Amino acid sequence: SVDSLKSKGIIPDYNPLLVKGQLIKCKLQLQKTFKDEKDMLADYQKSMEKEKDIEVKSLEDYMAKHNLKGVKTTNGAYVVLENPGDQSLKADSGKLATIMYRGYLQSNGKVFDTNMDTTKGHAEPIQIPVGSRGAIQGWNEALPYFGKGGKGKILVPAMLAYGPQPQGSDIPAFSNLIFDIEVTNVQD
After folding, report:
1. pLDDT at site 169
2. Cα–Cα distance for residue pair 44/188, rounded to 1 Å
3. Whole-model pTM?
4. Mind listing the pLDDT tens digit for each residue in 141-186?
5. In the beta sheet, which residues pair with residue 129?
């Protein structure tokens, strides 16, 4: 009952999908059982690794189709360098990198955010403390390939971005992301 969800605070309010007085009907199918939590977590980890392998293969296919040559990071992001920038000022872990970027979905090319123009409401460079929780894992692995003035692309498999967690309506769950970036500054 949608009304039960509302009364228990599970949904904040009724909406066009969850209408007062309606019922939600579901069909469930038990797919696996586990002896204990350890077995369940091992199976989950195996599933996530399989998903990541599929995502990395998808990025490799994209690169082949678009004639891109890149370097694979430790966990499967790809870096395509147009200009590596000043390698004596690398955007390495512990540094603060100032970045201009355009992020889009690999699946359809839809831009979900950018500061390279004002189409997403901001055009200021962002500052990322490299190697911190201030950036997705794919960026933390890829940024050290760039120095000050560096330009290129970062292709990030979903599991090194947001994985199964959608980010609003712009980034669906399990989305591979591509970023055009320019590192405008690197500092301590």
Report:
1. 86
2. 39
3. 0.79
4. 999 999 999 999 999 999 999 998 999 889 999 999 999 999 999 9
5. 96
153 Cβ contact partners less than 8 Å away, ≥ 6 residues apart: 68, 70, 78, 79, 80, 82, 178, 179, 180, 181
The answer to whether 179 and 103 have CB atoms below 8 angstroms apart is yes
From CA 126, how far away is CA 183, in angstroms rounded? 10
With residue 105 as reference, give the H or E element that holds it: strand 96-105
Phi, then psi, of 100 in degrees rounded to 5 = -105, 140
Neighbouring residues of 163: CB distance < 8 A, sequence distance ≥ 6? 48, 173, 174
Rounded to an integer, what is the distance from CA 94 to the centroid of its chain? 21
Q: Which amino acid is at 175?
A: S
